[in-house]
Each structure stands twice: as C-alpha cells, then as structure tokens.
TrEMBL record:
SUPFAM superfamilies: Acyl-CoA N-acyltransferases (Nat). CDD domains: NAT_SF (cd04301). GO terms for molecular function: acyltransferase activity, transferring groups other than amino-acyl groups. PROSITE patterns: GNAT. It holds the Pfam family Acetyltransf_1. This is N-acetyltransferase domain-containing protein. Residues 5-164 form the N-acetyltransferase domain.
C-alpha cells in the first residue's frame, strides 16, 4: 500500500504542481473554483507561508491557501464577501483543492487541520458557491458553519466560518 501524501508548507518548487491542481479545478475543467491565481501570486503566498500542500513524492495531491483579509481585499468577489458582514477579525481560507485521484482520502481535512494549526486556530472565513454541495458538506465536516450568503456576478455564495 502506498503511503499517504505528506502535508506541509509549500515551497517554490511546488508552484507548477499547485497550478496543475488549480487548473483541473477551474469551472471550464469541470471544477468549481471562483478565482484563478497566478504563479507570481503563489510565489508571494509561499514566501509569506500562506500555502500548505499535500505531496505524494514529486506530485502535488492538493493545496490550501489562506491569507490575511488585506491580501485579497482588492478582488471583487472577496469585496462582496467582506461586505456581507463576515467576522472582521477572521483570516481568509481558500481555495482548497485536491487532485481528482486523491479525493475521498481525507486530504482536505488534513490540509485544513494543518492550516488551522499554522494559524493558531484563529477565526477563519471562506465562501463557496451555493450550488457546490460537496464543498459545503466538506467544510462543515471540517468544523465550519454557514454564517450568511451573498451574490456576486449573478451567482449565490455561502459564507462559512470557524471561530478561534
């Protein structure tokens, strides 16, 4: 039996694999991501220790991004979420992506647990498309609760939070 992927802080060498997982999770690829981050954004986030990955040898099996609010406050969908009344002290969680062939192995929970540990269990907020039942259920299993909803670009989203 193959060992489980190892979870830890991302390094610059992980960027290509992170981008591969991100692309596979974009809407045009059948996924449900609401944003696309550049290699430069990931490089900066990695330098700031805002990315955790699951590595299976040389392959990235999944990743989670998390940032202070200010790091993404310029993004229109984030502005819409922030104006919905979310916890002003919370950091932002997401995206969290797991490669198709690594799903249902507990990686999302492991990535989120590592993120929470890294962030000293501070309050956290995220948003998910209202019609993405699988992601909503996964986040509830991780310990988040639905707090409110908002609309952006004609799409309904729910905000989930976890307290500190």
């Amino acid at each position: 039996m193959k060992p489980s992927p190892v979870i830890g802080l991302a390094t610059p060498q992980d960027i290509a694999g992170i981008l591969e997982v991100q692309e596979a999770n974009q809407e045009e690829s059948g996924g449900a991501l609401s944003a696309r981050f550049s290699a430069d954004w990931f490089a900066d986030a990695i330098a700031s220790e805002w990315i955790i990955v699951a590595r299976d040898d040389d392959r990235i099996a999944g990743y989670v991004a998390f940032t202070p609010r200010e790091a993404q406050a310029h993004i229109p969908i984030i502005q819409a979420m922030l104006s919905s009344g979310t916890n002003q002290d919370a950091y932002l969680h997401g995206p969290i992506c797991v490669a198709q062939d690594y799903r249902r192995m507990g990686l999302a929970n492991g990535l989120f647990a590592a993120e929470r540990e890294h962030m000293n269990h501070a309050a956290v907020s995220t948003f998910i498309r209202e019609d993405n039942a699988a992601s909503r259920a996964a986040h509830v299993r991780m310990g988040m609760t639905q707090a409110m909803s908002f609309e952006h670009g004609g799409v309904r989203y729910v905000v989930l939070e976890a307290a500190s």
